[in-house]
Amino acid sequence: MQLSVIILNYNVRYFLEQCVLSVQKALENIDGEIIVIDNNSSDDSCAMMKELFPNVKLIENKENLGFPKGNSIGVAQAKGEYICILNPDTVVAEDTFIKILNFVTLSAVEVPNSAIGIVGCKLIDGTGNFLPESKRGIPTPWVAFTKIFGLYKFSNVFGKYYAQHLTENQSGKVDILVGAFMVMKRELYNEIGGFDENCFMYSDDIDLSYMALKLEKSNYYFHETSVIHYKGESTIRDEKYMKRFQEAMQFFYKKHFVKSIVFDFFMKIGAILFSLLKKNQTQNSTKKIDEYIIFSNQELQLNLTKKTRILNEFSNFKNNSNSNIEIIFDTKSFSYKEIINFMISNKCKNLTFKNYIPNSNYLIGSNNSIDRGEIIIIKN
After folding, report:
1. Measured distance CA(29)–CA(49) in Å, rounded
2. DSSP labels for 50-99?
3. Segment 284-293, tens digit of pLDDT
4. pTM for this one?
5. What's the distance, CA 88 to chain centroid?
């Protein structure tokens, strides 16, 4: 088998459904499998999987075992030569896996002595904007300091945190990749020992990427395919989140760097500022929608409260409207690749996007990179 896609879920039933739908389409021409591990969700994620995706392997944990252990349980059941660690709040394009696997294969042929480690791709948020954490540098104490206090915004000299030696549209070597989308050989994952289970979440992807580097592997950012990562759907950005984030970073530094009392002090200040900023952003992330535009090849009765209209063509609209418009894509009429490309090409401040999942009759999306996302159940 060529590829095993590992999806760890916790209480994001609707995002999980859309994710699995997109992965199924992306695996149509690949010898692959999907493994969903549920970390004891209290919603009906498992019931949904059994009803809608009976042929997908589902592992039901009896407690929340965290990100590292949950994924390792899935990898232990995988049969693919390659594995993809994939968040449930993602949407992949139909050609994402084909492009990634071709990239890995061609790289190995062209550079026989190369040792490819982990490969990531371009991630965008729910409004089509590039997510800079798609490619990162090693967060040494100094690099983390420049990130926490925003110095990376002012000069590329401080741009190592987001690997600014590459633009979002350049593929190349990077140190750290994000755990929302990671492709690697299953053999490499096992050689590293998988995600460190001593870290509950948040620095596990940094640690795994760094461990690959220590094995003299080269990690790559591949820009030629894009994946939506709605972000934060399974985790509320509250004080508990910040406490775990801080603990996770401290875990990474204690494991790989010399402990610094001075840096610990600045980390605590930065964590407090970061927490306040995220809380303020979350509270102010709601956007009033003035009108919905439905992209579909058929008439849809969605019973939305706002004015709606059907458009089959989209030209000059975003430049001629001051209203906040939400575009709804009928996922039966368009491929996920078409939807993703449209979002990237037409992103602007007054446009937001939702996908319509007709089989379960709901809208799903997120209005920015820190928004927890929105599910609108369509009543018949």
Report:
1. 22
2. HHH-TTSEEEE-SS--HHHHHHHHHHHH---SEEEEE-TTEEE-TTHHHH
3. 455 688 888 8
4. 0.88
5. 8
